[in-house]
Amino acid sequence: MAPGSPAGAQEAPSLPNLVELLRPPGDRGNHGFSTTGPSTSRARPVADEAAARTTAPEGTAAAALALPFPSGSAALTPDAEKILEALGRALNSSELARYRFRIEGHTDTAGEAPANLVLSERRAATVRDYLVSRHGVAAARLEALGLGETQLLVQTPDATSEPRNRRVQVLNLGG
């Protein structure tokens, strides 16, 4: 984490790593960096290990982005916008332009489950709308889905604040 960054903030993933993470497994090539991660059997660039850890089904191209939303809010912070800049460029790249994507909002277990579900839906929709309005990604290529606390990246008991579970996950849905 960079000095002065808020807790839970993440450096913007690199464009090549996001493209590699979101490219379907059969469409991946060697682009000059390692694609093996220590905690997963799926091919993932080591440089963006946090983005490589997802709850996506095996064989699904996905990236998890720890966007630093204010607590209980779906408003994008400047740090979140920096991360989304890289995602917007990746989605518009020639390698990914033919694919559709699901943007999933996830929360931790702090707060009530119904409220977390609504919050995750708002966050996913905010990210989708940002990518459409700021990066010109076709709305038909993006669907937003809130999953609340139903797919925890890190298993925790109820009422636990866990920044790694507060994320937006992007899954490649195919062409």
Automatic annotation (TrEMBL):
SUPFAM superfamilies: OmpA-like (SSF103088). Keywords: Cell outer membrane, Membrane. InterPro entries: Bact_OuterMem_StrucFunc (IPR050330), OMP_bac (IPR006664), OmpA-like (IPR006665), OmpA-like_sf (IPR036737). The keyword Lipid metabolism does not apply. Residues 32-42 have a biased composition (Polar residues). Residues 1-58 are annotated as: Disordered. The keyword Transcription does not apply. Residues 56-175 form the OmpA-like domain. Pfam families: OmpA. PROSITE patterns: OMPA_2. Its main location: membrane. This is OmpA-like domain-containing protein. It comes from Craurococcus roseus. The lineage of its organism: Bacteria, Pseudomonadati, Pseudomonadota, Alphaproteobacteria, Acetobacterales.
